[in-house]
């Protein structure tokens, strides 16, 4: 079956103002709204559109994380994913561990494409897609803003510092999404009801034979330094004078 | 103790990208740093010569292969991984080039990556921004692990010239994958300074109203010798091309002078400019969040103010 695997991560919602705990042990996540990582939502939307165009038959959504992640998997099923895989894991899961889990699932599911967000907006590592592609020894097309499938290959336009780069990658391949790829659909109430009946399988790291290695130990978390309070000027002349005074003009 | 650091050079085939010199500065803050720069190209001679001149560089490696015409991560990663054995650290810039490539190298080496290094505390301890820069994490890499890192270019000054490192050719026997093929790159060509490295940057937001409206920005920028940027809202509205976008999802920059014109100051934009030395904000809405980070603020109609500034220069 022509299948697309989509990885999602449960993260603090992007509208939440992040606060570092007073003791520097982390950021405050208790009682905070959690959502699907926005880049992953775009990944799922892209997979659904590819399926709707008939270029794939099944979209499988997967996450690695604690029991609460099932909420986000249900949301993904309501968006339109056909089934979900939850790899249960507690604590911080490093990108290399996630990539090893995805590799195991790729071997099992044999997808045409794996689509992931370019980064998660919590730890901002931006590694998982490239790591999976390396371990799998398959192509990667990161920061995608356009994806077209032709027989056996994907033509992907990437957002790079120089502008837009286009690559052809043989499938199977890993694609990571940038913001402009698409606008994810809203979930409708009847779909939420339907999603409750869709299959959601739970797996464990140990059953998959992946060790939760910790090679990047968090030492401390700090709030960033604040900028000094600025001054207001009343017109263009004052502005130019202020810039000259600071030696900026 | 010596730290042997391999830096992957970013370049366009002819010129070394300034991001590489920033990686050299970052690597130089690791105690006992011995720095090698690898230049992957079809013919690396010209770029290798530029890398050899950077102060602090000890060795330059020419990694030459006909497949290296375009900087494809799938092609470059196995070559760098094959060179990596004697090194304790493998660094690249946190640009789209480096972010794409370094994590693939990390996978091939099965070595952990520290993304967006903004400060070095020791050979194994680094600071990096998380949550779009709203928190700073200090992270310790496990003893004995090779450290792959991307260097947040806005956090380091470029290493100056003044070096004269020896240049060698690396001979590698690596299978190059054929599964990834370059098709094209479309760049908005500009005679203005490069946004990423310019000392002065002027950015416009949605308040400019149109691509036409952006023209008054270009006129001012030319007078100041500044690069021009745009907010995500302005890019999404089609007023400015993608590569001009400044912010967490665009370019993260650290100019001496940043002038935000008609930009309200969404968190994602502010994250991209927080290392600017001086931020000037011009906006008709005095309540706009951009004023919370601005060093100098001016409330008013930008279509009046900008031509006036231009006349006063």
Describe the 3D structure.
The complex is a heterodimer of chains A (249) and B (313). With 249 residues, chain A is of the alpha/beta class. In chain A, 28% of the residues lie in helices and 31% in strands. In chain A, the strands form two sheets. A nine-stranded mixed β-sheet of chain A has the order 9-8-7-10-6-1-4-5-11, sandwiched between helices. In chain A, β7 (140-150) and β8 (153-160) form a beta hairpin. In chain A, α2 (70-79) packs across α5 (189-195) and α3 packs across α4. Chain B is an alpha/beta fold and 313 residues long. Chain B has helices at residues 18-28, 45-52, 73-83, 96-109, 215-224, 232-236, 267-273, 290-293, 302-312, and strands spanning 3-8, 33-41, 59-64, 89-93, 113-117, 119-120, 125-130, 135-141, 147-151, 167-169, 180-186, 200-204, 227-230, 257-261, 278-283, 296-299. A seven-stranded parallel β-sheet of chain B has the order 5-9-4-1-2-3-10, with helices on both faces. Chain B has a five-stranded parallel β-sheet with strand order 13-12-14-15-16. In chain B, β6 and β7 (125-130) form a beta hairpin. The longest helix of chain B is centred in the first third of the chain and has 14 residues, at 96-109. Classes of the chains: A alpha/beta (249), B alpha/beta (313). At the A-B interface, α3, α4, β7, β8 and β9 of A face α3, α4, β5, β7 and β8 of B. β9 of chain A pairs antiparallel with β11 of chain B, so a sheet runs across the interface.
């Amino acid at each position: 079956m022509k299948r697309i695997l989509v990885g999602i991560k449960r993260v603090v919602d992007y509208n939440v103002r992040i606060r570092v705990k007073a003791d520097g042990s982390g950021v405050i996540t208790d009682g905070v709204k959690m959502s699907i990582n926005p880049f992953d939502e775009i990944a799922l939307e892209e997979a659904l559109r590819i399926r709707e165009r008939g270029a794939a038959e099944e979209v499988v959504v997967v996450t690695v994380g604690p029991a609460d992640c099932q909420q986000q998997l249900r949301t993904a099923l309501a968006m339109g994913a056909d089934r979900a895989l939850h790899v249960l894991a507690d604590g911080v899961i490093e990108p290399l561990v996630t990539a090893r889990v995805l590799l195991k699932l790729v071997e099992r599911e044999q997808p045409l494409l794996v689509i992931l967000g370019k980064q998660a907006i919590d730890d901002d590592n931006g590694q998982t897609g490239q790591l999976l592609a390396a371990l799998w020894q398959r192509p990667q097309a990161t920061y995608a803003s356009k994806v077209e499938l032709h027989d056996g290959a994907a033509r992907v336009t990437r957002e790079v510092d120089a502008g837009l780069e286009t690559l052809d990658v043989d499938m199977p391949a890993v694609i990571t999404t940038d913001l402009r790829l698409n606008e994810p659909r809203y979930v409708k109430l009847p779909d939420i009801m339907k999603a409750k009946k869709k299959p959601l399988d739970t797996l464990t790291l140990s059953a998959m034979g992946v060790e939760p290695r910790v090679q990047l130990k968090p030492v401390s978390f700090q709030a960033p330094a604040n900028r000094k309070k600025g001054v207001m000027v009343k017109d263009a002349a004052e502005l130019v004078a202020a810039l000259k005074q600071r030696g900026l003009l | 103790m010596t730290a042997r650091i391999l830096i992957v050079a970013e370049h366009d085939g002819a010129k070394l990208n300034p991001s590489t010199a920033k990686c050299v500065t970052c690597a130089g803050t690791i105690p006992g740093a011995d720095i090698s720069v690898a230049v992957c190209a079809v013919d690396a001679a010209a770029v290798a010569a530029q890398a050899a001149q950077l102060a602090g560089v000890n060795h330059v490696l020419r990694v030459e292969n006909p497949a290296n015409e375009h900087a494809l991560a799938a092609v470059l990663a196995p070559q760098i991984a094959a060179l990596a054995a004697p090194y304790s650290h493998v660094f690249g810039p946190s640009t789209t080039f480096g972010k794409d490539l370094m994590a693939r190298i990390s996978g091939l080496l099965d070595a952990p990556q520290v993304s967006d290094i903004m400060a070095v505390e020791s050979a194994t301890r680094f600071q990096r921004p998380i949550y779009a820069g709203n928190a700073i994490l200090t992270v310790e890499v496990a003893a004995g692990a090779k450290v792959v890192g991307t260097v947040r270019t806005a956090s380091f000054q470029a290493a100056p010239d003044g070096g004269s490192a020896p240049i060698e050719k690396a001979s590698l026997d690596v299978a190059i994958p054929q599964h990834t093929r370059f098709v094209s790159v479309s760049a908005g060509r500009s005679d203005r300074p490069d946004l990423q490295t310019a000392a002065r940057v002027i950015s416009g937001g949605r308040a400019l109203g149109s691509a036409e409206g952006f023209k008054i920005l270009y006129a001012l920028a030319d007078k100041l010798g500044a690069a021009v940027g745009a907010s995500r809202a302005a890019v999404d509205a089609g007023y400015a091309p993608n590569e001009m976008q400044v912010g967490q999802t665009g370019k993260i920059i650290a100019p001496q002078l940043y002038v935000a014109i008609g930009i309200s100051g969404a968190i994602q934009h502010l994250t991209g400019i927080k290392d600017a030395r001086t931020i000037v904000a011009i906006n008709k809405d005095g309540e706009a969040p951009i004023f919370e980070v601005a060093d100098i603020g001016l409330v008013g109609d930008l279509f009046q103010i900008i031509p006036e500034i231009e006349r006063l220069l």
